[in-house]
Amino acid sequence: MNNIENLIKNLNEEQKEAVLSTEGPNLIVAGAGSGKTRVLTTRLIHIINEKKAWPNQILCVTFTNKAAKEMQNRVMQYVKGSSNAVPWLGTFHSISVKFLRRHAEALGYKSNFTILDTEDQKKLIRNIVKGEDLDAKKFSPQLIMYHIDQWKNKGLMPNDVKIVIFHHATYFPKSGLK
Ligand SMILES: Nc1ncnc2c1ncn2[C@@H]1O[C@H](COP(=O)(O)OP(=O)(O)OP(=O)(O)O)[C@@H](O)[C@H]1O
Ligand SMILES: [Mg+2]
């Protein structure tokens, strides 16, 4: 196990202040390559070491996978435990999908749901448009994806959208209106 005191000792004064002030919110603004990630990682190690929080009580969100991996590796060297030392350390996307899988049943999904990337989404829409005998020129994947996005933002579920009115065409589902 590496020595945490040395880790803190090697920081500059501003970094030290940011690491050691664990009460209340902190905003750290510093230039590229000036030691922000090092501050965050050391702060994480310090909080765990001081038992101010259990690793699974810490939510740590990074922008890139690279940063998440770096922080996870770094924490591992100082904190006993599995390779996944801080379970809720990751990118916004990886943490969100983990959270959704864990609680999928609350939304009526199974935890092994698939996430479609943009290309998969387009392919699926093209297949549906074909299957419904719709004019592929009028119902482009981009147009439909735009509307789905709007509905999702409004919190509408598939059953809430019965008649679909696009700019260029109106679509009545084959199954009829309920
Ligand atoms: N006080 C320090 N003394 C010596 N080296 C340091 C110190 N702080 C950070 N470093 C080193 O400087 C390099 C850059 O640090 P770090 O990755 O934490 O910066 P950053 O601000 O997060 O960078 P980026 O803007 O690229 O995200 C790393 O190799 C780190 O170990
Ligand atoms: Mg960084």
Structural Rg: 24 Å
The CATH superfamily name of the largest domain is P-loop containing nucleotide triphosphate hydrolases
Helix content: 40-55%
Beta-sheet strand percentage? 5-15%
Order of helices and strands: HHHEHEHHHEE
What is the CATH-assigned architecture of the largest domain? 3-Layer(aba) Sandwich
Strand order of the largest sheet: 1-2
Main β-sheet description = 2 strands, parallel
Q: What's the number of extended β-strand segments?
A: 4
Listed once per kind, the bound small molecules are: adenosine-5'-triphosphate, magnesium ion
Summed up, the helix count is 7
Q: Can you give the mean pLDDT?
A: 87
Low-confidence stretches: none
Q: What is the subunit arrangement here?
A: single chain
CATH topology of the largest domain: Rossmann fold
Brief rundown of the structure:
The chain is mainly alpha-helical.
Describe this protein's structure.
This protein has 2 domains: 4-107, P-loop containing nucleotide triphosphate hydrolases (Rossmann fold, 3-Layer(aba) Sandwich); 118-171, no CATH class. Helix content is 45%, strand content 6%. The protein has 7 helices and 4 strands. The strands form 2 sheets. It has a two-stranded parallel ribbon with strand order 1-2. The protein has a two-stranded antiparallel sheet with strand order 3-4. The longest helix has 14 residues, at 36-49. It starts with a helix and ends in a 7-residue tail after the last strand. The relative contact order is 0.07. It binds adenosine-5'-triphosphate (ATP) and magnesium ion. Magnesium ion binds at residues 36-37, 67.
